[in-house]
Amino acid sequence: FAGAAAAFLAMLGxxxxxxxxxxxxxxxxxxxxxxxxxxxxxxPEPRACPRxxxxxxxxxxxxxxxxxFQDFIVDRDMYYVSSNILAPITCPHRLxxxxxxxxxxxxxxxxxxWGQEFKDFVASLRKHAEHQACEQSRPWTDIPFWVCTMSNNxxxxxxxLGSGDALESSFYLALRSEGCRGTCMIMDQQALPLMxxxxxxxxxxxxxxxxxxEDFAGxxxxxxxxVLQYGGTGVDTALTIxxxxxxxxxxDAQATNAADKEMIDNCVRHMP
Length: 272
Known about the structure:
The protein is an alpha/beta fold. It has helices spanning about 1-25, 25-40, 60-75, 80-90, 95-100, 120-135, 150, 155-160, 170-175, 195-210, 235-245, 260-270; strands at about 55-60, 110, 145, 180-185, 220-225, 225. Strand 5 (about 220-225) and strand 6 (about 225) form a beta hairpin.
């Protein structure tokens, strides 16, 4: 009897906890709600703006997002951040994160693989921002980046991807805009972005821009320890990147969506 009573009480306790959690929300839900309230205090009437170059986020906004949720993110990647943090926060307004927090004009386009750890993503961009801040005598928190996860409206992905035309995509519009100064590719020790179709499309456009515009900085390879071109990357990472670059192949690259890969492959084939 005592055992059955204990099991019954345990079941009641579990049911009570589940109901309490449903009513009050989990710690992550509470954190998201607090963050959204803070955002709306600073930007009480978030509005949609045209796709592309006007939807960058500042390094300060990225850093704040990471610091507030880092105990949930831990070693997780952009897929986790997008689905568990950004999507619930942007859902009420159906806007991009950039539009929600207050968009900035693009200065640096970010090319990255969503499977990389988010903490390394933020650290890599911060290294670049700190370098730019020293060169320009401005706060590193003010340096703006166009990041697809945050600059695209994830509630209208088809439009952001150009409705099947890569040259009408928000990626292309942002990268090709006059205000874009260069491309920051977030690298890891395996150089995984160089195996992704969208990233190689962005590298291709970056190479074209480097030839077409004297003021374009080209492709900057960013890591958590620093930017390769500024001497901030270890030898092992540099060698891996060099090996991957020597064997680049758009046909062998991968994409989460097969239709995206086909669109990108066709676009590059038909470009002059």
